[in-house]
Automatic annotation (TrEMBL):
One of its GO terms (molecular function) is Glc3Man9GlcNAc2 oligosaccharide glucosidase activity. Keywords: Glycosidase, Hydrolase. The keyword rRNA-binding does not apply. This is Mannosylglycerate hydrolase MGH1-like glycoside hydrolase domain-containing protein. One of its GO terms (biological process) is oligosaccharide metabolic process. SUPFAM superfamilies: Six-hairpin glycosidases (SSF48208). Belongs to the glycosyl hydrolase 63 family.
Amino acid sequence: MDRADQSTSPHTTAYNGARRVLTGNWVGASTVPSRSLYPHQWSWDSAFIAIGLRHLWPLRAQRELETLLAAQWDDGRVPHIVFNPSVPLAAYFPSPDFWRSSSAGTACGAPRATETSGLVQPPVHALAAWLVHRADPVSSRQRGFLRRMYPRLVAWQRYLTGARDLGGHGLASIVHPWESGMDNSPCWDPPLSRIEPVGSDTFHRADLDHGRADDRPTDLDYGRYVRLAENYRDHGYRDHDCGHPFAVEDPGVNALLVLSEYALAEIAGALGRDPADHLVRVEELTNALVKRLWDEESGLFLPFDVIAGETVREHSAAGLIPLVLPGLPERTARALVRTARGPRFGLGDTTRMVPSYDLTGHAHDPSRYWRGPAWFNVNWLVERGLRRHGELSLANGLRAELIHLAARSRYAEYVDPVSGEARGTRDFSWTAAVTIDLLT
Ligand code: 9WN
């Protein structure tokens, strides 16, 4: 801490630090999650980043989302990575020459002039667009921000509820662990175990040039990630004839889909359109989520493996995310709060932040990525959910920890859920962004 910081409050220090991270990671038309580990634009990162940026520079927040959605494919998908052509190929794996979106994705309408991945990530974007608009409605209206974003956001949501309803029950499926945003969650171990990995000598993991191997997914995980992505690419990223070997209904992705559908209703209203269609979908999606993914026994939402036709009985923080939904049945919300406070997640008791995976689970590892560490974006969603359902004291406690640990960890990518010790990369954008949002 320098002299200037000593005379300021911890909140001012946290705010200034977060602002410094977001300033440093802005690359002209978007923000990189991390200058070293993730040097391109990532889809759900940009949504969280825009939610923070709106308090600092509303125009930059609008721009962040506009840049991402400019890379949308004609079939509606918003790619999980938009590549920066000035970054060397070796800086990140898999690089554009792996995905070959502009040639392999032709049938799905991938952009010609921008290279992207062919996968998607959780749909936080309509929520982000709505919050960004509300931060500065005057400039948003002048620039036609919502008017331009709305059709793109609708197409994105319809891609997920249409081509991605692989289970036929009104929920979206992910077709690759990267699509959950929670890459090596133990939830994906059973469906991934059926995938033949490619040899680890066939690719070079650029992530290990920047991150500790113990904090990252294993080579075996990567062998399977590569196999799945290659298969999708070699089928032209077409969902209907790809024979997806991995298809899972994830509660986190589907809860965010519903939350964004609420936001689309708000956006439609602000544009003078009828929001009824969005509200009908909100109800249908919420019902499908509860019917198909709620597990009474554990008091948590669990993923459903569409290929095996069975529930994945692993307990991850993704199953708590539906708490953000206003329309969740009250008894389900109450049960989720009990689970968050119970031995699996220890909120307000044994943990400082909600761990990404069950503390009592056989695969729990407090250091390894999505197998135990606590992540700031997920905890921001849980904090909103707690507040939404009237759990103010738990929400306030979590908010205080998030702000404190973000600053203390130098805006770490993730932290040990019990000690709060920093893990992963530092100066991570969404950690800074949610800190700004919680402080404003
Ligand atoms: C693969 C950028 C992304 C996040 C994900 C996180 C991690 C990428 C990786 O980084 O995934 O998409 O290379 O490990 O798991 O949630 O969006 O921050």
